[in-house]
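Subject: complex prediction, re-run

Hi both,

The earlier run crashed halfway through, so I resubmitted it with identical inputs.
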Amino acid sequence: MEIKVTVNGKKFTSDVEPRTLLVHYIREVLNLTGTNVGCDTSSCGACSLHLDGEAVKSCTVLAVQADGANITTIEGMAAADGTLHPMQQAFMENHGLQCGFCTPGMVMAATSLLEENPNPTEEEVRIGLEGNLCRCTGYHNIIKAVMAAAGK
Amino acid sequence: MIPAAFDYVRASSTAEAISLIGQHGSDAKFIAGGHSLLPMMKLRLAQPAVLVDISRISDLSYIKDAGDHIAIGAMTRHMDVEKSPVLAQHVPLLAHAAGHVGDPQVRHRGTIGGSIAHADPASDLPATTLALGATYVVQGPNGTREIAASDFYKSFLESDLAEDEMLTEIRVPKMNGAGWSFHKFNRRAQDWAIVGVAAWRGANGSGVGLVNMGQTPILASSVSAALAGGASIADAAALAVADAQPSADNNATVEYRTHLAKVLVRRALEQASA
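This time it finished cleanly. Structure:
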């Protein structure tokens, strides 16, 4: 089936099998491998990206369901000149990552969280990131990074 | 994990969706947000031959004040239920429970209609709408009918929906200021409830729904009957499992679930009565 999507500002038209998962389309057809596959069961959040501006788990969305959508992946967060998105910058400055595997999903979920709640408490950040697992940091510096990005 | 191959068709209206599901018969399934169905398809626990995508039927996404109840379109996402000012005012228990489904990413996709039609006893919204005395509106080739939530759930993942019927609206009575409480006992964030309790208590009585305490979501009628008869909260909560059939799994034995349900029902009723 033919789908048309806009990913990181670029338009793509692709012929996909209906069973193609969005994450596989993004990684294997568009070669945007910053979006990771972690658990593949909509638990870990490593595959989070923005679908029409909201974080979703792309391992649990069919590519055909995203037909017509505007998608942003981690590769689309930095500015064209390479300037990091404020959330990426905050993760860097606060050492919000160790191995980095969860980081793209964390950044996408955290930016979606701040979009919906620009002024969160620390507890709201913790609850808001419940769909993203990190096995390295103990979350402490991730929370710090998100609070920093929120201007706190 | 990749689902087994299937054909995919898209419906632009409820009538078209029902016509499409009728054409494709028992091997076809509706897909809305897909957050119950796709995980099952990836595990090959479900292998529909055809998916009828109803997620683009935009007129099924709404939350309306309909006098004595709130009418919610089946395609309304959990996030929209959670953040609805209308529900916060009139059915706060449902808005609160919707905020405990999965995680924010799941709530951006999953829908109240999908959750209810999936009829998973471990899901939060079937038991919550059951406790609230909701009515479900379903549409089929011969028109619409209304099903009381208490008549809807038949067995594990089985509901009263016929193969060619689609859930279109959830009608939830206004709570009129009744006290309420929602408990979701789990070991880790975003897990399913080991046991969940949705409870309200007001001038017109009470309602207690149990999550993951049987083959269907459970209405703890014995608890409400005891309260109506003047029993104390502690005595009523002791009847928490009278209507349930808990089973064991990796998280809990039957004895543990039974104990948890009694404790959580007591706490929920204390909070709802405060």
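The first strand of chain B starts at residue 7 and ends at 10.

- K.
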